[in-house]
Amino acid sequence: MRYLYIAGKWTEAADGGTAQTINPFDATPLDTLAEAGTADVDAAVAAAREAFDGPWRRSTVTDRAALLAKIADLLQRDREQLAHTESLDTGKTVNEARADVDDTTAVFRYYAGVAGADAGRVVDPGRANVTSRITHEPVGVCALIAPWNYPLLQISWKLAPALAAGNTTVIKPSELTPLSTVALVGLFEEAELPPGVLNLLLGQGGTAGQALVAHPGVDLISFTGGLGTGEKIMAAAARGVRRVALELGGKNPNIVFDGTDFDTVVDNALTAAFLHSGQVCSAGARLIVQDSLHDSFVAELAARADRIRLGSGLDPQTECGPLISAAHRAKVERYVQLGLSEGADLLAGGQRPPEPNLAAGFFLRPTVFAGCHREMAVVQDEVFGPVVTVERFSTEEEAIRLGNDTAYGLAGAVWTADAGQAERVAGALRHGTVWINDYHPYLPQAEWGGFGKSGIGRELGPSGLDEYQEKKHIYHNTSPGPTHWFSG
Ligand code: NAD
Prior knowledge:
By secondary structure, the protein is an alpha/beta fold. 38% of the residues lie in helices and 20% in strands. It has 15 helices and 20 strands. Helix 3 crosses helix 4. The longest helix has 21 residues. The radius of gyration is 24 Å and the shape is globular. It binds nicotinamide-adenine-dinucleotide.
Protein backbone atom coordinates (compact mmCIF):
# COMPACT_ATOMS: atom_id res chain seq x y z
CA MET A 1 0.00 0.00 0.00
CA ARG A 2 1.27 3.51 -0.91
CA TYR A 3 0.02 6.54 0.99
CA LEU A 4 -0.43 10.26 0.53
CA TYR A 5 2.21 12.46 2.16
CA ILE A 6 0.72 15.51 3.83
CA ALA A 7 2.35 17.79 6.42
CA GLY A 8 5.25 15.39 6.81
CA LYS A 9 3.12 12.27 7.44
CA TRP A 10 2.19 9.28 5.29
CA THR A 11 -1.58 9.05 5.42
CA GLU A 12 -4.59 7.24 3.98
CA ALA A 13 -7.14 9.20 1.98
CA ALA A 14 -9.67 10.93 4.26
CA ASP A 15 -12.51 8.91 2.74
CA GLY A 16 -10.44 5.69 2.70
CA GLY A 17 -10.39 5.61 -1.13
CA THR A 18 -7.87 3.32 -2.84
CA ALA A 19 -6.92 2.33 -6.38
CA GLN A 20 -4.65 -0.22 -8.04
CA THR A 21 -1.72 0.42 -10.29
CA ILE A 22 -0.92 -2.29 -12.81
CA ASN A 23 2.06 -3.57 -14.72
CA PRO A 24 1.56 -2.72 -18.41
CA PHE A 25 3.67 -5.74 -19.39
CA ASP A 26 1.05 -8.27 -18.26
CA ALA A 27 -1.80 -6.27 -16.66
CA THR A 28 -1.10 -7.75 -13.21
CA PRO A 29 -1.58 -5.53 -10.13
CA LEU A 30 1.57 -3.80 -8.89
CA ASP A 31 0.40 -1.94 -5.81
CA THR A 32 -2.54 -0.39 -3.99
CA LEU A 33 -2.61 3.36 -3.63
CA ALA A 34 -4.46 5.76 -1.41
CA GLU A 35 -6.65 7.86 -3.68
CA ALA A 36 -6.97 11.51 -2.67
CA GLY A 37 -10.30 13.34 -2.60
CA THR A 38 -11.11 17.00 -1.99
CA ALA A 39 -10.54 16.78 1.79
CA ASP A 40 -7.00 15.55 1.14
CA VAL A 41 -6.41 18.30 -1.41
CA ASP A 42 -7.55 20.87 1.18
CA ALA A 43 -5.22 19.35 3.79
CA ALA A 44 -2.24 19.26 1.42
CA VAL A 45 -2.70 22.89 0.31
CA ALA A 46 -3.18 24.01 3.93
CA ALA A 47 0.03 22.21 4.94
CA ALA A 48 1.92 23.82 2.07
CA ARG A 49 0.59 27.26 3.04
CA GLU A 50 1.54 26.79 6.69
CA ALA A 51 5.05 25.71 5.71
CA PHE A 52 5.38 28.64 3.31
CA ASP A 53 4.39 31.10 6.02
CA GLY A 54 6.60 29.32 8.57
CA PRO A 55 10.31 28.54 8.89
CA TRP A 56 10.75 27.52 5.22
CA ARG A 57 10.25 31.17 4.33
CA ARG A 58 13.38 31.96 6.31
CA SER A 59 15.44 29.16 4.77
CA THR A 60 18.47 30.40 2.86
CA VAL A 61 19.39 29.59 -0.70
CA THR A 62 22.41 27.76 0.70
CA ASP A 63 20.16 25.51 2.82
CA ARG A 64 17.97 24.74 -0.13
CA ALA A 65 20.88 24.06 -2.48
CA ALA A 66 22.34 21.65 0.08
CA LEU A 67 19.00 19.83 0.25
CA LEU A 68 18.82 19.45 -3.54
CA ALA A 69 22.41 18.19 -3.66
CA LYS A 70 21.54 15.65 -0.95
CA ILE A 71 18.56 14.44 -3.01
CA ALA A 72 20.90 14.02 -5.99
CA ASP A 73 23.18 11.83 -3.85
CA LEU A 74 20.26 9.74 -2.59
CA LEU A 75 18.93 9.27 -6.14
CA GLN A 76 22.30 7.82 -7.14
CA ARG A 77 22.46 5.64 -4.04
CA ASP A 78 19.02 4.16 -4.95
CA ARG A 79 19.60 4.22 -8.72
CA GLU A 80 18.98 0.52 -9.37
CA GLN A 81 15.91 0.27 -7.18
CA LEU A 82 14.36 3.42 -8.66
CA ALA A 83 15.09 2.28 -12.21
CA HIS A 84 13.48 -1.09 -11.46
CA THR A 85 10.37 0.61 -10.05
CA GLU A 86 10.12 2.99 -12.99
CA SER A 87 10.51 0.17 -15.48
CA LEU A 88 7.80 -1.93 -13.83
CA ASP A 89 5.36 0.96 -13.58
CA THR A 90 5.85 2.50 -17.04
CA GLY A 91 6.91 -0.54 -19.09
CA LYS A 92 10.04 1.24 -20.33
CA THR A 93 13.32 -0.67 -20.47
CA VAL A 94 15.35 -0.68 -17.31
CA ASN A 95 18.24 0.82 -19.27
CA GLU A 96 16.12 3.79 -20.19
CA ALA A 97 14.87 4.03 -16.61
CA ARG A 98 18.49 4.15 -15.38
CA ALA A 99 19.11 7.03 -17.77
CA ASP A 100 16.00 8.74 -16.34
CA VAL A 101 17.40 8.43 -12.80
CA ASP A 102 20.71 9.89 -13.98
CA ASP A 103 18.96 12.72 -15.81
CA THR A 104 16.84 13.41 -12.72
CA THR A 105 20.00 13.52 -10.60
CA ALA A 106 21.55 15.99 -13.04
CA VAL A 107 18.51 18.26 -12.74
CA PHE A 108 18.74 18.35 -8.93
CA ARG A 109 22.48 19.03 -9.13
CA TYR A 110 21.95 21.78 -11.71
CA TYR A 111 19.39 23.65 -9.59
CA ALA A 112 21.50 23.11 -6.45
CA GLY A 113 24.26 24.90 -8.37
CA VAL A 114 22.28 27.79 -9.83
CA ALA A 115 19.91 28.41 -6.91
CA GLY A 116 22.17 31.02 -5.37
CA ALA A 117 23.95 32.18 -8.49
CA ASP A 118 21.61 35.07 -9.18
CA ALA A 119 20.43 37.00 -6.12
CA GLY A 120 18.82 39.75 -8.18
CA ARG A 121 20.39 43.00 -9.36
CA VAL A 122 21.05 46.56 -8.41
CA VAL A 123 19.76 49.13 -10.88
CA ASP A 124 20.84 52.73 -11.34
CA PRO A 125 17.92 54.88 -10.10
CA GLY A 126 19.19 57.94 -11.94
CA ARG A 127 18.92 60.16 -8.87
CA ALA A 128 20.95 60.94 -5.75
CA ASN A 129 20.29 59.39 -2.34
CA VAL A 130 18.38 56.40 -3.72
CA THR A 131 19.33 52.78 -4.00
CA SER A 132 17.21 50.53 -6.12
CA ARG A 133 17.39 46.78 -6.43
CA ILE A 134 15.49 43.80 -7.82
CA THR A 135 15.15 40.78 -5.55
CA HIS A 136 13.79 37.30 -6.23
CA GLU A 137 11.13 35.80 -4.03
CA PRO A 138 9.21 32.53 -4.15
CA VAL A 139 5.71 32.61 -5.63
CA GLY A 140 4.07 30.61 -2.83
CA VAL A 141 2.22 27.29 -2.93
CA CYS A 142 2.90 25.47 -6.20
CA ALA A 143 0.76 22.64 -7.61
CA LEU A 144 2.98 20.41 -9.75
CA ILE A 145 1.27 17.85 -11.98
CA ALA A 146 3.14 15.25 -14.02
CA PRO A 147 2.32 12.76 -16.82
CA TRP A 148 2.95 9.01 -16.98
CA ASN A 149 5.69 8.73 -19.58
CA TYR A 150 8.61 10.17 -17.57
CA PRO A 151 7.22 10.23 -14.03
CA LEU A 152 10.41 10.76 -12.02
CA LEU A 153 12.02 13.09 -14.52
CA GLN A 154 9.01 15.29 -15.24
CA ILE A 155 8.13 15.92 -11.61
CA SER A 156 11.80 16.76 -10.92
CA TRP A 157 11.95 19.37 -13.70
CA LYS A 158 9.32 21.20 -11.60
CA LEU A 159 10.20 20.24 -8.05
CA ALA A 160 13.91 21.07 -8.13
CA PRO A 161 13.50 24.71 -9.29
CA ALA A 162 10.33 25.24 -7.21
CA LEU A 163 12.16 24.25 -4.01
CA ALA A 164 15.37 26.03 -5.03
CA ALA A 165 13.35 29.25 -5.29
CA GLY A 166 11.85 28.71 -1.82
CA ASN A 167 8.30 27.68 -2.71
CA THR A 168 6.27 24.96 -1.05
CA THR A 169 4.65 22.31 -3.18
CA VAL A 170 1.79 19.89 -3.66
CA ILE A 171 2.69 17.30 -6.28
CA LYS A 172 0.46 14.89 -8.16
CA PRO A 173 1.94 12.16 -10.33
CA SER A 174 -0.15 10.38 -12.94
CA GLU A 175 -2.52 7.80 -11.50
CA LEU A 176 -0.99 5.34 -13.98
CA THR A 177 2.64 5.64 -12.79
CA PRO A 178 2.92 6.98 -9.22
CA LEU A 179 5.49 4.60 -7.72
CA SER A 180 8.79 6.35 -8.46
CA THR A 181 7.32 9.65 -7.22
CA VAL A 182 6.35 7.97 -3.93
CA ALA A 183 9.96 6.76 -3.66
CA LEU A 184 11.26 10.27 -4.41
CA VAL A 185 9.14 11.71 -1.59
CA GLY A 186 10.70 9.07 0.69
CA LEU A 187 14.12 10.48 -0.20
CA PHE A 188 12.99 13.98 0.77
CA GLU A 189 11.72 12.60 4.07
CA GLU A 190 15.10 10.97 4.65
CA ALA A 191 16.79 14.29 3.84
CA GLU A 192 14.64 15.86 6.60
CA LEU A 193 12.73 18.31 4.47
CA PRO A 194 10.53 20.29 6.90
CA PRO A 195 6.89 19.12 7.06
CA GLY A 196 4.52 20.71 4.56
CA VAL A 197 7.18 21.84 2.07
CA LEU A 198 6.47 18.85 -0.18
CA ASN A 199 3.04 17.20 -0.11
CA LEU A 200 2.08 14.24 -2.26
CA LEU A 201 -1.40 13.57 -3.61
CA LEU A 202 -2.11 10.33 -5.43
CA GLY A 203 -5.28 10.00 -7.43
CA GLN A 204 -7.20 10.64 -10.61
CA GLY A 205 -6.79 13.73 -12.75
CA GLY A 206 -10.52 14.44 -12.91
CA THR A 207 -10.90 14.40 -9.11
CA ALA A 208 -7.70 15.07 -7.13
CA GLY A 209 -6.02 16.91 -10.03
CA GLN A 210 -9.01 19.08 -10.79
CA ALA A 211 -9.61 19.93 -7.12
CA LEU A 212 -5.94 20.86 -6.76
CA VAL A 213 -5.83 23.24 -9.72
CA ALA A 214 -9.15 24.82 -8.71
CA HIS A 215 -7.99 25.37 -5.13
CA PRO A 216 -7.79 29.09 -4.29
CA GLY A 217 -4.85 28.43 -1.96
CA VAL A 218 -2.63 27.47 -4.90
CA ASP A 219 -0.53 30.35 -6.30
CA LEU A 220 1.10 28.61 -9.26
CA ILE A 221 0.24 25.58 -11.36
CA SER A 222 2.87 23.80 -13.42
CA PHE A 223 1.48 21.04 -15.58
CA THR A 224 2.93 18.56 -18.05
CA GLY A 225 0.47 16.47 -19.99
CA GLY A 226 -1.99 16.47 -22.86
CA LEU A 227 -3.29 19.51 -24.75
CA GLY A 228 -6.94 19.04 -23.69
CA THR A 229 -6.01 18.82 -20.01
CA GLY A 230 -3.71 21.82 -20.41
CA GLU A 231 -6.59 23.92 -21.76
CA LYS A 232 -8.75 22.96 -18.77
CA ILE A 233 -5.94 23.81 -16.37
CA MET A 234 -5.32 27.17 -17.98
CA ALA A 235 -9.02 27.97 -17.58
CA ALA A 236 -8.86 26.91 -13.92
CA ALA A 237 -5.78 29.10 -13.37
CA ALA A 238 -7.64 32.13 -14.76
CA ARG A 239 -9.91 32.06 -11.71
CA GLY A 240 -7.94 34.02 -9.15
CA VAL A 241 -5.32 35.00 -11.78
CA ARG A 242 -2.86 32.30 -10.74
CA ARG A 243 0.40 31.68 -12.52
CA VAL A 244 0.42 28.76 -14.93
CA ALA A 245 3.11 26.92 -16.90
CA LEU A 246 2.14 24.25 -19.44
CA GLU A 247 4.30 21.60 -21.12
CA LEU A 248 2.01 19.90 -23.60
CA GLY A 249 2.21 17.58 -26.57
CA GLY A 250 4.09 17.65 -29.82
CA LYS A 251 4.10 16.33 -33.35
CA ASN A 252 7.71 16.70 -34.09
CA PRO A 253 9.26 16.87 -37.56
CA ASN A 254 12.44 14.96 -38.23
CA ILE A 255 13.76 16.36 -41.53
CA VAL A 256 16.28 14.27 -43.44
CA PHE A 257 18.27 15.68 -46.36
CA ASP A 258 20.16 13.41 -48.72
CA GLY A 259 23.91 13.29 -48.11
CA THR A 260 24.31 12.32 -44.44
CA ASP A 261 25.58 8.89 -43.42
CA PHE A 262 22.76 6.50 -44.33
CA ASP A 263 23.08 4.03 -41.42
CA THR A 264 23.45 6.80 -38.86
CA VAL A 265 20.38 8.65 -40.01
CA VAL A 266 18.16 5.55 -40.26
CA ASP A 267 19.34 4.39 -36.85
CA ASN A 268 18.60 7.78 -35.29
CA ALA A 269 15.22 7.98 -37.00
CA LEU A 270 14.28 4.69 -35.30
CA THR A 271 15.37 5.97 -31.88
CA ALA A 272 13.59 9.27 -32.46
CA ALA A 273 10.31 7.53 -33.29
CA PHE A 274 10.31 4.39 -31.15
CA LEU A 275 12.19 5.12 -27.92
CA HIS A 276 9.79 4.23 -25.06
CA SER A 277 7.40 2.92 -27.74
CA GLY A 278 7.00 6.46 -29.09
CA GLN A 279 5.39 7.66 -25.85
CA VAL A 280 7.66 10.68 -25.74
CA CYS A 281 6.40 14.26 -26.09
CA SER A 282 9.34 15.07 -28.37
CA ALA A 283 9.23 11.82 -30.37
CA GLY A 284 10.30 12.20 -34.00
CA ALA A 285 6.98 10.83 -35.17
CA ARG A 286 6.84 12.83 -38.40
CA LEU A 287 9.66 11.99 -40.78
CA ILE A 288 10.13 14.37 -43.71
CA VAL A 289 12.60 12.83 -46.16
CA GLN A 290 14.21 14.22 -49.33
CA ASP A 291 12.98 12.63 -52.58
CA SER A 292 16.36 11.34 -53.73
CA LEU A 293 16.86 9.39 -50.51
CA HIS A 294 13.26 8.50 -49.78
CA ASP A 295 12.81 4.99 -51.19
CA SER A 296 15.96 3.42 -49.81
CA PHE A 297 15.42 5.21 -46.50
CA VAL A 298 11.87 3.98 -45.87
CA ALA A 299 12.76 0.44 -46.97
CA GLU A 300 15.59 0.25 -44.43
CA LEU A 301 13.53 2.01 -41.74
CA ALA A 302 10.69 -0.50 -42.11
CA ALA A 303 13.06 -3.49 -42.17
CA ARG A 304 14.75 -2.34 -38.98
CA ALA A 305 11.42 -1.49 -37.30
CA ASP A 306 10.33 -5.08 -37.98
CA ARG A 307 13.39 -6.34 -36.09
CA ILE A 308 12.75 -4.31 -32.89
CA ARG A 309 12.49 -6.74 -29.95
CA LEU A 310 9.43 -6.23 -27.74
CA GLY A 311 9.23 -7.57 -24.20
CA SER A 312 9.38 -6.85 -20.51
CA GLY A 313 11.28 -3.70 -19.63
CA LEU A 314 13.21 -5.76 -17.09
CA ASP A 315 14.54 -8.17 -19.73
CA PRO A 316 17.93 -6.87 -20.94
CA GLN A 317 17.12 -8.15 -24.46
CA THR A 318 14.05 -5.91 -24.75
CA GLU A 319 14.27 -2.85 -26.98
CA CYS A 320 10.65 -1.61 -26.62
CA GLY A 321 8.17 -2.22 -23.83
CA PRO A 322 4.37 -2.11 -23.93
CA LEU A 323 2.16 0.96 -24.16
CA ILE A 324 0.97 2.32 -20.86
CA SER A 325 -2.61 1.01 -20.80
CA ALA A 326 -5.28 -0.84 -22.74
CA ALA A 327 -7.12 2.45 -23.33
CA HIS A 328 -4.01 4.14 -24.68
CA ARG A 329 -3.21 1.23 -27.02
CA ALA A 330 -6.81 1.37 -28.29
CA LYS A 331 -6.32 5.07 -29.08
CA VAL A 332 -3.08 4.35 -30.97
CA GLU A 333 -4.76 1.49 -32.85
CA ARG A 334 -7.56 3.86 -33.91
CA TYR A 335 -4.88 6.08 -35.44
CA VAL A 336 -3.44 3.09 -37.29
CA GLN A 337 -6.88 2.42 -38.77
CA LEU A 338 -7.30 6.10 -39.57
CA GLY A 339 -3.91 6.17 -41.33
CA LEU A 340 -4.99 3.19 -43.47
CA SER A 341 -8.34 4.76 -44.29
CA GLU A 342 -6.58 8.03 -45.21
CA GLY A 343 -4.51 6.10 -47.75
CA ALA A 344 -1.11 5.82 -46.03
CA ASP A 345 1.05 2.79 -46.98
CA LEU A 346 1.66 0.50 -44.03
CA LEU A 347 5.28 -0.71 -44.35
CA ALA A 348 5.79 -2.17 -40.87
CA GLY A 349 3.82 -3.03 -37.75
CA GLY A 350 0.23 -1.92 -37.33
CA GLN A 351 -0.48 -5.14 -35.41
CA ARG A 352 -0.16 -6.52 -31.94
CA PRO A 353 2.82 -8.90 -31.64
CA PRO A 354 1.99 -12.58 -32.19
CA GLU A 355 4.11 -13.94 -29.29
CA PRO A 356 1.87 -15.60 -26.67
CA ASN A 357 3.98 -14.27 -23.78
CA LEU A 358 3.13 -10.71 -24.84
CA ALA A 359 -0.61 -11.27 -25.24
CA ALA A 360 -1.64 -9.98 -21.80
CA GLY A 361 0.36 -6.74 -22.09
CA PHE A 362 -0.49 -3.60 -24.03
CA PHE A 363 1.89 -4.17 -26.93
CA LEU A 364 1.77 -2.86 -30.48
CA ARG A 365 4.44 -3.48 -33.13
CA PRO A 366 6.47 -0.44 -34.23
CA THR A 367 4.55 0.98 -37.16
CA VAL A 368 5.84 2.77 -40.26
CA PHE A 369 3.49 4.60 -42.63
CA ALA A 370 4.90 5.92 -45.93
CA GLY A 371 3.08 7.89 -48.62
CA CYS A 372 1.80 10.34 -46.03
CA HIS A 373 0.83 13.95 -46.59
CA ARG A 374 0.20 16.92 -44.37
CA GLU A 375 -3.62 16.80 -44.51
CA MET A 376 -3.79 13.36 -42.86
CA ALA A 377 -4.87 13.28 -39.21
CA VAL A 378 -2.23 10.63 -38.51
CA VAL A 379 0.36 13.21 -39.63
CA GLN A 380 -1.10 16.20 -37.78
CA ASP A 381 -2.29 14.70 -34.46
CA GLU A 382 -0.09 13.57 -31.60
CA VAL A 383 -0.52 9.77 -31.64
CA PHE A 384 1.89 9.23 -28.73
CA GLY A 385 2.68 5.66 -29.63
CA PRO A 386 4.98 3.60 -31.87
CA VAL A 387 3.75 5.11 -35.15
CA VAL A 388 5.93 7.11 -37.53
CA THR A 389 4.67 8.76 -40.71
CA VAL A 390 6.91 9.55 -43.67
CA GLU A 391 6.38 12.47 -46.07
CA ARG A 392 8.70 13.48 -48.89
CA PHE A 393 10.09 16.81 -50.07
CA SER A 394 12.40 18.08 -52.77
CA THR A 395 13.58 21.58 -51.79
CA GLU A 396 14.80 23.17 -48.57
CA GLU A 397 11.86 25.62 -48.61
CA GLU A 398 9.42 22.74 -48.86
CA ALA A 399 11.10 20.95 -45.95
CA ILE A 400 10.80 24.05 -43.76
CA ARG A 401 7.18 24.59 -44.77
CA LEU A 402 6.29 21.00 -43.86
CA GLY A 403 8.32 21.14 -40.63
CA ASN A 404 6.34 24.16 -39.49
CA ASP A 405 2.99 22.83 -40.66
CA THR A 406 1.78 21.76 -37.23
CA ALA A 407 -0.27 23.30 -34.44
CA TYR A 408 2.41 22.14 -32.03
CA GLY A 409 6.00 23.34 -31.72
CA LEU A 410 7.87 21.31 -29.14
CA ALA A 411 10.88 19.89 -30.95
CA GLY A 412 12.28 18.99 -34.35
CA ALA A 413 15.46 17.90 -36.05
CA VAL A 414 17.32 18.42 -39.28
CA TRP A 415 19.84 15.97 -40.75
CA THR A 416 22.15 17.44 -43.35
CA ALA A 417 25.85 17.44 -44.26
CA ASP A 418 25.63 21.11 -45.30
CA ALA A 419 26.36 23.34 -42.28
CA GLY A 420 24.78 26.39 -43.88
CA GLN A 421 21.64 24.48 -44.66
CA ALA A 422 21.57 23.13 -41.08
CA GLU A 423 21.64 26.65 -39.67
CA ARG A 424 19.06 28.00 -42.14
CA VAL A 425 16.60 25.21 -41.42
CA ALA A 426 17.17 25.25 -37.63
CA GLY A 427 16.66 29.02 -37.64
CA ALA A 428 13.43 28.76 -39.62
CA LEU A 429 11.79 25.96 -37.60
CA ARG A 430 9.19 27.20 -35.10
CA HIS A 431 9.91 24.67 -32.36
CA GLY A 432 11.26 25.00 -28.81
CA THR A 433 14.17 22.61 -29.37
CA VAL A 434 15.87 21.92 -32.69
CA TRP A 435 18.49 19.22 -33.03
CA ILE A 436 21.00 19.29 -35.87
CA ASN A 437 22.30 15.83 -36.79
CA ASP A 438 21.04 14.34 -33.54
CA TYR A 439 17.75 13.53 -31.85
CA HIS A 440 16.49 13.52 -28.25
CA PRO A 441 19.37 14.86 -26.11
CA TYR A 442 18.42 17.65 -23.76
CA LEU A 443 20.48 19.48 -21.15
CA PRO A 444 19.40 20.61 -17.66
CA GLN A 445 21.08 23.94 -18.35
CA ALA A 446 19.17 24.55 -21.61
CA GLU A 447 15.54 25.69 -21.73
CA TRP A 448 12.88 23.16 -22.74
CA GLY A 449 9.35 24.00 -23.84
CA GLY A 450 7.07 24.60 -26.73
CA PHE A 451 5.95 27.09 -29.33
CA GLY A 452 2.29 27.07 -30.35
CA LYS A 453 0.05 24.49 -28.70
CA SER A 454 3.03 22.74 -27.11
CA GLY A 455 2.73 24.99 -24.11
CA ILE A 456 3.49 28.16 -22.23
CA GLY A 457 6.68 28.85 -20.30
CA ARG A 458 9.97 27.00 -20.13
CA GLU A 459 11.42 24.32 -17.90
CA LEU A 460 15.12 23.75 -17.24
CA GLY A 461 17.88 26.34 -17.57
CA PRO A 462 17.65 29.72 -15.83
CA SER A 463 14.11 30.23 -17.20
CA GLY A 464 13.02 27.06 -15.39
CA LEU A 465 13.91 28.79 -12.12
CA ASP A 466 12.34 32.11 -13.19
CA GLU A 467 8.95 30.40 -13.46
CA TYR A 468 8.99 29.93 -9.69
CA GLN A 469 10.16 33.41 -8.71
CA GLU A 470 8.45 36.72 -8.18
CA LYS A 471 10.63 39.73 -8.94
CA LYS A 472 10.43 42.55 -6.44
CA HIS A 473 11.72 46.09 -6.91
CA ILE A 474 12.93 47.66 -3.66
CA TYR A 475 13.40 51.43 -4.00
CA HIS A 476 15.16 52.99 -1.04
CA ASN A 477 15.26 56.74 -0.59
CA THR A 478 18.03 57.29 1.92
CA SER A 479 17.32 60.99 2.34
CA PRO A 480 13.54 61.53 2.22
CA GLY A 481 11.96 65.00 2.23
CA PRO A 482 8.64 66.63 1.26
CA THR A 483 7.58 66.35 -2.38
CA HIS A 484 5.76 69.75 -2.47
CA TRP A 485 3.39 68.17 -4.99
CA PHE A 486 0.34 69.58 -3.19
CA SER A 487 0.41 73.08 -1.81
CA GLY A 488 -2.33 72.96 0.90
P1 NAD B 1 -2.87 13.86 -19.14
O1 NAD B 1 -3.14 15.26 -19.55
O2 NAD B 1 -3.92 12.85 -19.31
O3 NAD B 1 -2.47 13.78 -17.59
C1 NAD B 1 -1.35 14.47 -17.07
C2 NAD B 1 -1.55 14.67 -15.59
O4 NAD B 1 -2.66 15.54 -15.38
C3 NAD B 1 -1.87 13.40 -14.79
O5 NAD B 1 -1.24 13.48 -13.52
C4 NAD B 1 -3.37 13.47 -14.65
O6 NAD B 1 -3.85 12.78 -13.52
C5 NAD B 1 -3.58 14.96 -14.50
N1 NAD B 1 -4.91 15.44 -14.88
C6 NAD B 1 -5.77 14.91 -15.79
N2 NAD B 1 -6.89 15.66 -15.87
C7 NAD B 1 -6.73 16.69 -15.01
C8 NAD B 1 -7.54 17.80 -14.64
N3 NAD B 1 -8.73 18.01 -15.18
N4 NAD B 1 -7.06 18.66 -13.73
C9 NAD B 1 -5.83 18.49 -13.17
N5 NAD B 1 -5.04 17.44 -13.46
C10 NAD B 1 -5.48 16.55 -14.38
O7 NAD B 1 -1.52 13.47 -19.90
P2 NAD B 1 -0.81 12.05 -19.91
O8 NAD B 1 -1.62 11.16 -20.78
O9 NAD B 1 -0.47 11.64 -18.53
O10 NAD B 1 0.58 12.42 -20.62
C11 NAD B 1 0.75 12.39 -21.99
C12 NAD B 1 0.83 13.80 -22.54
O11 NAD B 1 1.86 14.52 -21.87
C13 NAD B 1 1.19 13.82 -24.00
O12 NAD B 1 0.38 14.75 -24.68
C14 NAD B 1 2.64 14.30 -24.00
O13 NAD B 1 3.04 14.93 -25.17
C15 NAD B 1 2.64 15.22 -22.83
N6 NAD B 1 4.02 15.42 -22.33
C16 NAD B 1 4.63 16.60 -22.59
C17 NAD B 1 5.94 16.81 -22.16
C18 NAD B 1 6.66 18.11 -22.44
O14 NAD B 1 7.76 18.30 -21.95
N7 NAD B 1 6.08 19.03 -23.21
C19 NAD B 1 6.61 15.80 -21.47
C20 NAD B 1 5.95 14.60 -21.23
C21 NAD B 1 4.64 14.42 -21.67
